[in-house]
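Section handout, structural biology tutorial.
Before the tutorial, make sure you can parse a SMILES string by hand: atoms, branches in parentheses, ring closures as digits. In the record below the ligand is S-adenosylmethionine, and the chain has 284 residues. In the tutorial you will relate the predicted structure tokens back to the input. Do not try to memorize them.
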Amino acid sequence: MAVKEDKSSYSNDCNFIKKNNYIDLGDRGRYCTKNKLNELTGKEWIKFTKSWFILRPIRRSNDVISHPAKFPESLAERFIRFFTKEGEIVLDPMAGTGTVNYICEKLGRIGYSIELEEKYYDIGKNRSYQNFYLGDCRNIEKFNIPKVDYILTSPPYWDSLKRNHIRQIKRKDKGFDTEYSLKQKNFENIENYDEFINQLVDYYKLLKNWLKKRKYITIIVNNIYKNGKLYPLAFELACKLGKYYALKDEQVWCQDDKRLVALGINNAYVGNRHHTYCLIFRNE
Ligand SMILES: C[S@@+](CC[C@H](N)C(=O)[O-])C[C@H]1O[C@@H](n2cnc3c(N)ncnc32)[C@H](O)[C@@H]1O
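Predicted structure of the complex:
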């Protein structure tokens, strides 16, 4: 027996969408056509706002492995999907191997990136056709960068790569970089910790001129353990930058895939630091 299509419920659905501005996307949930920020459903939106998350990044490919502190593609995708819509502009002024540009291309966003070191810039240029500039990000006005909808970036964690940490020994053996360079212009080479933070804060302050009003900047950063002491870089950045942008949250990226290392056993407490902060600010 032929099943008669229930037209009444179909037209009721259309009326529902028109009236309430919702589109049903099945398992993904319902998308509100009035969503100002992104193309996610309410269900996906809520999931993102949990204050911690775990990623299981795939092993870094050979083309990008020489960079000592690249963030995973899945991290960039998570944040870019939440803070932008298709066709919007994203900036990473300390772009390393251009992960942000790479994901922008995949997601139909427009990426702009700057990197000081030619070796990483070359890798980034090969990974995507988006806008990539070689130079000191402090000279951002020299590059042709419009106002952007979102900034996703990660600075050097002061001089933390230079300390020949136990985790770096294998990289060194394989001939991979364990620091960026000796260039004075690289933020990594500012010797004094307070000076490093102040220069970083000044730089992020300058970036306000490139970020549209009421749009967001996310900084991936961590506190640093050096010579038996924790330097609260992430916390200090949150406080100091909070004077210029509205600090909205600190999401914690739990790095459950890192190997535990025997540190300080039978002697003194030394933490296995397996998390990173994602500081979310808004230009208000
Ligand atoms: C944590 S890494 C960023 C990694 C990047 N997110 C990726 O996925 O490859 C920080 C980068 O900032 C760059 N950098 C440091 N000082 C800079 C400056 N003054 N101008 C531009 N880039 C700079 C470093 O060379 C390094 O590649």
